[in-house]
Here is the input.
Amino acid sequence: MNLEAHRMSIIRSEDQAFEALFTSEYARVVGIANRVLADPDEAEDVAQEVFVDFHRLHSATAQYAPAWLHRAAAHASLNRLRGARRRQKREVAQALEEGDKTVDPQRHLEVSEDRRMVRAALGRLAPKPAAALAMRSSGLSYAEVAQALGIGIGQVGTLLRRAESALRKEVIRGTSN
Amino acid sequence: MAHLTDGTLRRMVDDPDARAGADAGHLDGCMDCKARFERISDDARSIATLLAIPDARIDVSRAFAQVSRAPRSQPALVRLPVFRSPVRPIRLALVAAVMVAALTLVAFAWAGLFYKPSTVVAVPVTVADMQALSQLANYGTVTWTQQPNLQVATSAADASAAAGGITPPVAHNVPSGISTTISYGAMSQAVATFTFSAAKAQAAAAASGQTLPALPAGVDGSTLTVTVGPAVGEIYGEMSQQSSGPNNINLPQLVIAKSAAPTVASTQVSAQTLENYILSLPGISPDLANAVRAVKDPSTTLLIPVPVQYASATQVDINGQNGVALGDNTGLGGGVVWIGKDGYVYVVAGSIKQGDAVNIARNL
Here is the structure.
């Protein structure tokens, strides 16, 4: 038996499978993180960390790979959101940067403030409803959200409703303050 | 019909699959549910607007290149929890790979009517293989007839007493730079019985979304009795515990271990039946299956699984006995496993070069 030849062929096929997985899922993983963080650069950071973590521990041929990546993207980005201080700094910088590009600075400031407020509120929700909302609003189907969270498809609506209702209350509270 | 739940109504807002059947009929005719549906739709729309964000512009090729540069580490399955360290995660990966995965594979893949190995051979395993094999533990129940008892001792005599009289091997060629602080580890003999259950196997497979090949006749209810140890080892380097708990042990630089060869006895099924079944499980790679089938005398061979993405293996001669020398691909560790003429399994491994490990092995 030529072990080295076996070894090389397995490594090659695993690497190819990982590249295929990356190509097909990267945009969706970034999409989930971006929906939570409202920051494309930070969303890409999160997505790349998620893929590296996956590659360390799992085979790219595993059936659960996309579901694992989606859930990890939602949780990792929500965790970052909760690390509030760093985020606020970034958002100030981002608002200033976006303000430079716009014809209507006042409007842009409002948009940034809305985004900041809704993200802060999202960070205060319970993890599971927040993750369901992040995934669904980034375009995952009900079936994909259910798979990522390991729940029945019927429960996705319940989690979304819970998240939206809580988020609405949080935003109203934030506005009235 | 009872009113629709908020969850069902929420799903009807934007899942076309949900807007059918009895629920849709109910919604059309129920004023109460209609009013709640409107409120839920409004909330869903306003939250969607609040969460709206321009799409990120991404360059997948550039991102893949960045991810490809990230260093890989050992797969979690071959790490023993106690050896996890944020500083040096690779150190004992080889020992972990040998001890954990070898025993798993041996116990399940080579259950002869009575199996006692006298030689070693390397077989390549992937992360997927290890996951598939670790699933096997869910295909029945494990009962310990004799629990392993692990102890750390300060003298060879104490370790030997705790390990049923086996004396730790004495190394003569320890490379310079290796700590002169030596402690000893001992494990008493452990006996476990695994009973296969067709029902548990199907349930475990269903839970992970897989379809199992049918269990061959006689496998349901059959038992494997695995005996491991006793074992002793010399551990070079500090083992002092840090304040943050038992998961943060400073990893030793070198471990030299000696263990009674594992034995497996089975009832009801032949080794061949079990082997064919295990190798047909979903997730087992053809490379592993072929490598296992290529072994000439399974009843006397201890399979040493080599995680192919992280370590390479070569056959070496240890004073006339077959040995498998391992080196991890990071260059941080090396080791060798062999069965001595006395029938004991020996392991020399650590953060040393593979050549040094072989040199120590030949001069024990």
